[in-house]
Amino acid sequence: DAGVIQSPRHEVTEMGQEVTLRCKPISGHNSLFWYRQTMMRGLELLIYFNNNVPIDDSGMPEDRFSAKMPNASFSTLKIQPSEPRDSAVYFCASSLSQENQPQHFGDGTRLSIL
Amino acid sequence: GNSVTQMEGPVTLSEEAFLTINCTYTATGYPSLFWYVQYPGEGLQLLLKATKADDKGSNKGFEATYRKETTSFHLEKGSVQVSDSAVYFCALYNFNKFYFGSGTKLNVKP
What we know:
Shape of chain A: globular
Structural class of chain B: mainly beta
Distance between the termini of chain B: 41 Å
Largest interface: A-B, 21 and 19 residues
Order of helices and strands of chain B: EEEEEEEEEEEE
Radius of gyration of chain B: 13 Å
Strand content of chain A: over 45%
Shape of chain B: globular
Oligomer: heterodimer
Number of strands of chain B: 12
């Protein structure tokens, strides 16, 4: 079975540019999560979706960040405009939305904003 | 509220040493508890889980017991290998949400 697929694996861009991160969850999973990982703050939940609907976006840091899930097999996290402090590894995870089901993580996108 | 506290790392051990990584939690109700492992350049992978008090999760030689009386879920392994070097995250699941600890880096030297 294919796991959670994220693209790109690495992204380097200049500040002010728009950045789009992509995620394909595991087929059949109906919950999807976006996380950010940094040395200073550890792993932070940004937003999660259930059945393509955003349930909790309280972790989204600013209006510059937005996330969409147009269908069950695709989600995007967009940063516009990007800033150097957005540099981090961004993970997508998916799970079944039943009790006690573990999250399955992608390999992440390492984002560097110059 | 819900939260997870892990021992700070890094933890450095010699091969075949005994490992303990402490994890305590705060939660309302009856959470499930998990350990995840992250190898360099990869995402988190589920290592083991326990869904109720006194349950023991185990996998690849690692074990953790859900202790409600001490609100703990310490990770143990009897004999670590160099390949166990990674970052370990304790997590709890409660009311449809995951809460992760800050992670503990383990370095195992040959």
